[in-house]
Amino acid sequence: MDDNGIEVGSYTDNLIGTLLAIFGNVLVSISLTIQKYSHVKLAGTKDHRAFYRTKTWWSGFVFTCLGELANFVSYAFAPLAIVAPLNAVSVLTSSILGFIFLRERLKPKDFAKQFGLVFLGYIFVIGGAYLLVSFGPNSHEKLIAANIVKHLVGWPVLLYLLLEIITFCLLLYFYKRRKANYLVIILLLVALLGSVTVLTVKAVSGMLVLTIEGTMQLNYPIFSVMFVCMVASAIFQAGFLSQACKLHDSSLVASVNYIFSTIFAVLAGAVFYLEFNKEDILHICMFLLGCVKNLCLSVPLSGVPTIHDKGLVIQPDYSGSFSYGTLVNNNGVTPAPLPVHLETPPLGPRSSDASQGHPGIKRD
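C-alpha coordinates predicted for NIPA like domain containing 3 (364 residues):
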Protein backbone atom coordinates (compact mmCIF):
# COMPACT_ATOMS: atom_id res chain seq x y z
CA MET A 1 0.00 0.00 0.00
CA ASP A 2 1.11 3.57 -0.64
CA ASP A 3 0.34 6.66 1.44
CA ASN A 4 -3.14 6.94 -0.07
CA GLY A 5 -4.03 3.35 0.63
CA ILE A 6 -3.79 2.33 -3.00
CA GLU A 7 -2.24 -1.05 -3.61
CA VAL A 8 0.63 -0.91 -6.08
CA GLY A 9 2.38 -3.55 -8.12
CA SER A 10 5.81 -4.87 -7.21
CA TYR A 11 9.04 -5.17 -9.14
CA THR A 12 8.17 -8.82 -9.75
CA ASP A 13 4.90 -7.79 -11.41
CA ASN A 14 6.74 -5.39 -13.73
CA LEU A 15 9.24 -8.11 -14.63
CA ILE A 16 6.45 -10.60 -15.39
CA GLY A 17 4.65 -8.04 -17.56
CA THR A 18 7.83 -7.13 -19.44
CA LEU A 19 8.72 -10.77 -20.15
CA LEU A 20 5.16 -11.51 -21.26
CA ALA A 21 5.21 -8.52 -23.63
CA ILE A 22 8.54 -9.58 -25.15
CA PHE A 23 7.41 -13.20 -25.47
CA GLY A 24 4.10 -12.19 -27.02
CA ASN A 25 5.67 -9.87 -29.60
CA VAL A 26 8.19 -12.54 -30.60
CA LEU A 27 5.37 -15.07 -31.07
CA VAL A 28 3.35 -12.62 -33.18
CA SER A 29 6.27 -11.91 -35.51
CA ILE A 30 6.99 -15.64 -35.88
CA SER A 31 3.32 -16.31 -36.65
CA LEU A 32 3.22 -13.64 -39.35
CA THR A 33 6.34 -15.12 -40.95
CA ILE A 34 4.80 -18.60 -40.92
CA GLN A 35 1.57 -17.34 -42.46
CA LYS A 36 3.42 -15.41 -45.12
CA TYR A 37 5.48 -18.50 -45.90
CA SER A 38 2.24 -20.42 -46.48
CA HIS A 39 1.22 -17.82 -49.09
CA VAL A 40 4.57 -18.05 -50.86
CA LYS A 41 4.51 -21.85 -50.79
CA LEU A 42 1.03 -21.96 -52.31
CA ALA A 43 2.00 -19.48 -55.00
CA GLY A 44 5.01 -21.58 -55.97
CA THR A 45 2.98 -24.74 -56.56
CA LYS A 46 -0.06 -25.76 -58.56
CA ASP A 47 -2.10 -26.04 -55.37
CA HIS A 48 -5.19 -23.84 -55.82
CA ARG A 49 -6.39 -24.08 -52.22
CA ALA A 50 -7.10 -20.90 -50.30
CA PHE A 51 -4.47 -19.98 -47.73
CA TYR A 52 -6.86 -20.61 -44.82
CA ARG A 53 -7.18 -24.27 -45.85
CA THR A 54 -3.52 -25.06 -45.17
CA LYS A 55 -2.06 -26.40 -41.91
CA THR A 56 0.86 -23.99 -42.14
CA TRP A 57 -1.39 -20.93 -42.09
CA TRP A 58 -3.43 -22.25 -39.17
CA SER A 59 -0.31 -23.04 -37.17
CA GLY A 60 0.71 -19.42 -37.64
CA PHE A 61 -2.76 -18.33 -36.54
CA VAL A 62 -2.39 -20.34 -33.33
CA PHE A 63 0.92 -18.58 -32.62
CA THR A 64 -0.83 -15.26 -33.22
CA CYS A 65 -3.51 -16.07 -30.65
CA LEU A 66 -0.92 -17.15 -28.08
CA GLY A 67 1.17 -14.04 -28.69
CA GLU A 68 -1.78 -11.68 -28.41
CA LEU A 69 -2.91 -13.46 -25.24
CA ALA A 70 0.53 -12.92 -23.70
CA ASN A 71 0.41 -9.24 -24.71
CA PHE A 72 -3.07 -8.91 -23.23
CA VAL A 73 -2.02 -10.35 -19.86
CA SER A 74 1.16 -8.24 -19.79
CA TYR A 75 -0.93 -5.06 -19.49
CA ALA A 76 -2.24 -6.30 -16.13
CA PHE A 77 1.27 -6.54 -14.64
CA ALA A 78 3.39 -3.80 -16.20
CA PRO A 79 2.72 -0.09 -16.88
CA LEU A 80 1.58 1.02 -20.33
CA ALA A 81 4.75 3.08 -20.67
CA ILE A 82 6.80 -0.13 -20.69
CA VAL A 83 4.51 -2.51 -22.58
CA ALA A 84 3.59 -0.24 -25.51
CA PRO A 85 7.14 0.62 -26.72
CA LEU A 86 8.14 -3.05 -26.50
CA ASN A 87 6.20 -3.62 -29.73
CA ALA A 88 9.57 -2.79 -31.28
CA VAL A 89 10.59 -6.35 -30.37
CA SER A 90 8.09 -7.62 -32.94
CA VAL A 91 9.58 -5.35 -35.62
CA LEU A 92 13.09 -6.52 -34.72
CA THR A 93 12.16 -10.21 -34.80
CA SER A 94 10.32 -9.83 -38.11
CA SER A 95 13.36 -8.13 -39.59
CA ILE A 96 15.71 -10.91 -38.46
CA LEU A 97 13.35 -13.57 -39.82
CA GLY A 98 13.25 -11.62 -43.08
CA PHE A 99 17.01 -11.91 -43.37
CA ILE A 100 16.90 -15.63 -42.58
CA PHE A 101 14.30 -16.37 -45.26
CA LEU A 102 15.60 -13.88 -47.82
CA ARG A 103 15.97 -15.72 -51.12
CA GLU A 104 18.48 -13.54 -52.90
CA ARG A 105 22.18 -13.90 -52.12
CA LEU A 106 24.27 -10.75 -51.95
CA LYS A 107 28.00 -10.25 -51.70
CA PRO A 108 29.18 -9.17 -48.24
CA LYS A 109 30.08 -5.69 -49.50
CA ASP A 110 26.72 -5.17 -51.21
CA PHE A 111 24.90 -6.63 -48.21
CA ALA A 112 26.61 -4.24 -45.78
CA LYS A 113 25.97 -1.30 -48.08
CA GLN A 114 22.30 -2.10 -48.55
CA PHE A 115 21.41 -3.13 -45.01
CA GLY A 116 23.91 -1.21 -42.88
CA LEU A 117 21.22 1.12 -41.58
CA VAL A 118 19.08 -1.86 -40.68
CA PHE A 119 21.73 -3.17 -38.29
CA LEU A 120 22.00 0.33 -36.85
CA GLY A 121 18.28 0.05 -36.17
CA TYR A 122 18.91 -3.25 -34.35
CA ILE A 123 21.33 -1.48 -32.02
CA PHE A 124 18.78 1.26 -31.35
CA VAL A 125 16.07 -1.30 -30.55
CA ILE A 126 18.21 -3.31 -28.13
CA GLY A 127 19.56 -0.20 -26.40
CA GLY A 128 16.15 1.42 -26.28
CA ALA A 129 14.50 -1.69 -24.83
CA TYR A 130 17.13 -1.82 -22.10
CA LEU A 131 16.54 1.82 -21.16
CA LEU A 132 12.76 1.34 -21.21
CA VAL A 133 12.85 -1.61 -18.84
CA SER A 134 15.53 -0.13 -16.57
CA PHE A 135 14.16 3.41 -16.23
CA GLY A 136 10.45 2.91 -16.84
CA PRO A 137 7.84 3.37 -14.09
CA ASN A 138 8.64 1.05 -11.19
CA SER A 139 5.13 0.67 -9.81
CA HIS A 140 1.54 0.84 -10.90
CA GLU A 141 -1.85 0.52 -9.26
CA LYS A 142 -3.73 -2.69 -8.89
CA LEU A 143 -6.62 -2.10 -11.25
CA ILE A 144 -9.60 -2.61 -9.00
CA ALA A 145 -12.85 -1.06 -10.18
CA ALA A 146 -12.70 1.76 -7.62
CA ASN A 147 -9.29 2.94 -8.83
CA ILE A 148 -10.39 2.94 -12.47
CA VAL A 149 -13.52 4.97 -11.71
CA LYS A 150 -11.45 7.40 -9.64
CA HIS A 151 -9.12 8.07 -12.56
CA LEU A 152 -11.92 8.21 -15.11
CA VAL A 153 -13.77 11.06 -13.38
CA GLY A 154 -10.63 13.07 -12.67
CA TRP A 155 -10.25 16.38 -14.52
CA PRO A 156 -6.90 15.46 -16.26
CA VAL A 157 -8.53 12.41 -17.87
CA LEU A 158 -11.70 14.27 -18.80
CA LEU A 159 -9.65 17.08 -20.38
CA TYR A 160 -7.48 14.55 -22.22
CA LEU A 161 -10.52 12.69 -23.55
CA LEU A 162 -12.18 15.95 -24.61
CA LEU A 163 -9.11 17.05 -26.58
CA GLU A 164 -8.81 13.59 -28.11
CA ILE A 165 -12.47 13.58 -29.21
CA ILE A 166 -12.18 17.06 -30.76
CA THR A 167 -8.98 16.09 -32.61
CA PHE A 168 -10.52 12.83 -33.79
CA CYS A 169 -13.63 14.59 -35.13
CA LEU A 170 -11.54 17.17 -37.02
CA LEU A 171 -9.35 14.50 -38.59
CA LEU A 172 -12.38 12.40 -39.46
CA TYR A 173 -14.00 15.43 -41.13
CA PHE A 174 -10.99 16.02 -43.37
CA TYR A 175 -10.70 12.30 -44.11
CA LYS A 176 -14.37 11.72 -44.97
CA ARG A 177 -15.59 15.06 -46.31
CA ARG A 178 -12.44 16.55 -47.80
CA LYS A 179 -11.13 13.19 -49.08
CA ALA A 180 -7.77 13.86 -47.42
CA ASN A 181 -6.34 10.34 -47.71
CA TYR A 182 -2.94 11.35 -46.40
CA LEU A 183 -1.04 8.70 -44.46
CA VAL A 184 -0.49 11.00 -41.49
CA ILE A 185 -4.22 11.72 -41.11
CA ILE A 186 -5.26 8.06 -41.31
CA LEU A 187 -2.59 6.88 -38.88
CA LEU A 188 -3.37 9.69 -36.45
CA LEU A 189 -6.93 8.37 -36.41
CA VAL A 190 -5.53 4.89 -35.76
CA ALA A 191 -3.30 6.18 -32.95
CA LEU A 192 -6.10 8.10 -31.25
CA LEU A 193 -8.28 5.01 -31.28
CA GLY A 194 -5.28 2.94 -30.22
CA SER A 195 -4.79 5.04 -27.09
CA VAL A 196 -8.36 4.25 -26.07
CA THR A 197 -7.75 0.59 -26.88
CA VAL A 198 -4.65 0.25 -24.67
CA LEU A 199 -6.32 2.12 -21.80
CA THR A 200 -9.32 -0.20 -21.86
CA VAL A 201 -7.23 -3.32 -22.48
CA LYS A 202 -5.17 -2.56 -19.38
CA ALA A 203 -8.32 -2.04 -17.30
CA VAL A 204 -10.06 -5.18 -18.57
CA SER A 205 -6.91 -7.30 -18.28
CA GLY A 206 -6.19 -6.05 -14.77
CA MET A 207 -9.73 -6.74 -13.54
CA LEU A 208 -9.72 -10.20 -15.11
CA VAL A 209 -6.42 -11.10 -13.43
CA LEU A 210 -7.69 -9.86 -10.05
CA THR A 211 -10.87 -11.91 -10.54
CA ILE A 212 -8.82 -15.03 -11.27
CA GLU A 213 -6.75 -14.34 -8.15
CA GLY A 214 -9.93 -14.26 -6.07
CA THR A 215 -11.04 -10.61 -5.97
CA MET A 216 -14.24 -10.41 -8.05
CA GLN A 217 -14.27 -7.38 -10.35
CA LEU A 218 -16.55 -8.49 -13.19
CA ASN A 219 -19.77 -7.49 -11.44
CA TYR A 220 -18.88 -3.77 -11.49
CA PRO A 221 -20.43 -1.65 -14.28
CA ILE A 222 -17.04 -0.12 -15.13
CA PHE A 223 -15.86 -3.53 -16.37
CA SER A 224 -18.68 -3.70 -18.94
CA VAL A 225 -18.03 -0.10 -20.02
CA MET A 226 -14.33 -0.75 -20.50
CA PHE A 227 -14.95 -4.03 -22.33
CA VAL A 228 -17.38 -2.43 -24.82
CA CYS A 229 -15.01 0.50 -25.44
CA MET A 230 -12.12 -1.94 -25.94
CA VAL A 231 -13.95 -3.98 -28.58
CA ALA A 232 -15.39 -0.95 -30.41
CA SER A 233 -12.11 0.99 -30.55
CA ALA A 234 -10.19 -2.10 -31.71
CA ILE A 235 -12.65 -2.73 -34.54
CA PHE A 236 -12.60 0.84 -35.82
CA GLN A 237 -8.83 0.98 -35.41
CA ALA A 238 -8.43 -2.13 -37.57
CA GLY A 239 -10.70 -0.59 -40.21
CA PHE A 240 -8.64 2.61 -40.52
CA LEU A 241 -5.41 0.62 -40.51
CA SER A 242 -6.73 -1.54 -43.35
CA GLN A 243 -7.50 1.61 -45.36
CA ALA A 244 -3.97 2.87 -44.77
CA CYS A 245 -2.49 -0.41 -46.01
CA LYS A 246 -4.62 -0.24 -49.17
CA LEU A 247 -3.54 3.30 -50.04
CA HIS A 248 0.10 3.33 -48.96
CA ASP A 249 3.19 1.12 -48.82
CA SER A 250 2.95 -1.44 -46.02
CA SER A 251 6.47 -0.89 -44.65
CA LEU A 252 5.85 2.85 -44.39
CA VAL A 253 2.50 2.25 -42.70
CA ALA A 254 4.11 -0.05 -40.12
CA SER A 255 6.87 2.43 -39.33
CA VAL A 256 4.69 5.54 -38.95
CA ASN A 257 1.98 3.63 -37.12
CA TYR A 258 4.51 2.37 -34.57
CA ILE A 259 5.69 5.95 -33.90
CA PHE A 260 2.22 7.43 -33.47
CA SER A 261 0.81 4.50 -31.50
CA THR A 262 3.72 4.44 -29.06
CA ILE A 263 3.58 8.18 -28.42
CA PHE A 264 -0.17 8.20 -27.77
CA ALA A 265 -0.05 5.02 -25.66
CA VAL A 266 2.67 6.39 -23.38
CA LEU A 267 0.85 9.72 -23.12
CA ALA A 268 -2.44 7.99 -22.30
CA GLY A 269 -0.81 5.89 -19.60
CA ALA A 270 0.82 8.97 -18.07
CA VAL A 271 -2.49 10.89 -17.97
CA PHE A 272 -4.95 8.13 -17.10
CA TYR A 273 -2.93 5.84 -14.81
CA LEU A 274 -0.47 8.51 -13.54
CA GLU A 275 2.45 6.19 -14.26
CA PHE A 276 5.16 8.87 -13.98
CA ASN A 277 3.90 10.64 -10.85
CA LYS A 278 6.53 9.15 -8.55
CA GLU A 279 9.43 9.14 -11.00
CA ASP A 280 12.33 11.58 -10.78
CA ILE A 281 13.63 13.68 -13.65
CA LEU A 282 16.58 11.38 -14.35
CA HIS A 283 14.41 8.30 -14.78
CA ILE A 284 11.96 10.19 -17.01
CA CYS A 285 14.76 11.54 -19.23
CA MET A 286 16.40 8.12 -19.58
CA PHE A 287 13.01 6.57 -20.36
CA LEU A 288 12.38 9.20 -23.06
CA LEU A 289 15.83 8.47 -24.48
CA GLY A 290 14.89 4.79 -24.72
CA CYS A 291 11.65 5.74 -26.49
CA VAL A 292 13.56 7.92 -28.97
CA LYS A 293 15.97 5.07 -29.70
CA ASN A 294 13.12 2.67 -30.37
CA LEU A 295 11.28 5.21 -32.52
CA CYS A 296 14.42 5.78 -34.57
CA LEU A 297 14.24 2.15 -35.73
CA SER A 298 11.33 3.05 -38.02
CA VAL A 299 13.64 4.86 -40.46
CA PRO A 300 16.42 2.28 -40.97
CA LEU A 301 14.07 -0.71 -40.71
CA SER A 302 11.79 0.59 -43.47
CA GLY A 303 14.12 -1.24 -45.86
CA VAL A 304 13.86 -4.54 -44.01
CA PRO A 305 13.79 -7.55 -46.33
CA THR A 306 10.63 -9.63 -46.21
CA ILE A 307 9.44 -12.84 -47.75
CA HIS A 308 7.79 -11.81 -50.97
CA ASP A 309 7.82 -12.53 -54.65
CA LYS A 310 9.18 -9.49 -56.46
CA GLY A 311 6.18 -7.54 -57.70
CA LEU A 312 3.78 -10.47 -57.81
CA VAL A 313 0.50 -10.52 -55.94
CA ILE A 314 0.13 -13.83 -54.10
CA GLN A 315 -3.19 -15.24 -52.89
CA PRO A 316 -5.19 -12.11 -53.75
CA ASP A 317 -8.38 -11.39 -51.94
CA TYR A 318 -11.68 -11.05 -53.76
CA SER A 319 -11.89 -7.29 -53.28
CA GLY A 320 -8.85 -6.77 -55.45
CA SER A 321 -7.11 -4.70 -52.77
CA PHE A 322 -3.82 -5.19 -51.02
CA SER A 323 -4.98 -6.64 -47.71
CA TYR A 324 -3.84 -9.43 -45.40
CA GLY A 325 -4.48 -12.12 -47.99
CA THR A 326 -1.88 -10.71 -50.36
CA LEU A 327 1.85 -10.49 -50.51
CA VAL A 328 3.14 -7.27 -51.88
CA ASN A 329 6.59 -5.97 -52.58
CA ASN A 330 7.36 -4.10 -49.38
CA ASN A 331 10.40 -2.50 -50.92
CA GLY A 332 8.13 -0.03 -52.64
CA VAL A 333 8.67 -1.45 -56.13
CA THR A 334 5.56 -1.05 -58.23
CA PRO A 335 4.80 -4.13 -60.32
CA ALA A 336 5.23 -3.48 -64.01
CA PRO A 337 1.90 -3.58 -65.90
CA LEU A 338 1.41 -6.23 -68.49
CA PRO A 339 1.17 -5.23 -72.13
CA VAL A 340 -2.34 -4.56 -73.29
CA HIS A 341 -2.47 -7.50 -75.67
CA LEU A 342 -1.35 -9.88 -72.89
CA GLU A 343 -3.83 -8.84 -70.20
CA THR A 344 -6.76 -10.79 -71.67
CA PRO A 345 -5.28 -13.50 -73.87
CA PRO A 346 -7.75 -15.31 -76.12
CA LEU A 347 -8.62 -18.81 -75.04
CA GLY A 348 -9.69 -21.90 -76.92
CA PRO A 349 -11.20 -22.00 -80.41
CA ARG A 350 -12.35 -18.38 -80.19
CA SER A 351 -8.81 -17.08 -80.63
CA SER A 352 -9.06 -16.93 -84.41
CA ASP A 353 -12.47 -15.24 -84.26
CA ALA A 354 -11.25 -12.70 -81.78
CA SER A 355 -8.29 -11.80 -83.98
CA GLN A 356 -10.59 -11.35 -86.99
CA GLY A 357 -12.87 -9.06 -85.02
CA HIS A 358 -9.93 -6.85 -84.04
CA PRO A 359 -7.83 -5.87 -87.06
CA GLY A 360 -5.25 -4.31 -84.75
CA ILE A 361 -4.24 -7.73 -83.36
CA LYS A 362 -1.65 -9.51 -85.39
CA ARG A 363 -2.18 -13.20 -85.97
CA ASP A 364 0.73 -15.64 -85.92
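Confidence is low (pLDDT under 50) at residues 1-7, 304-344, 347-364.
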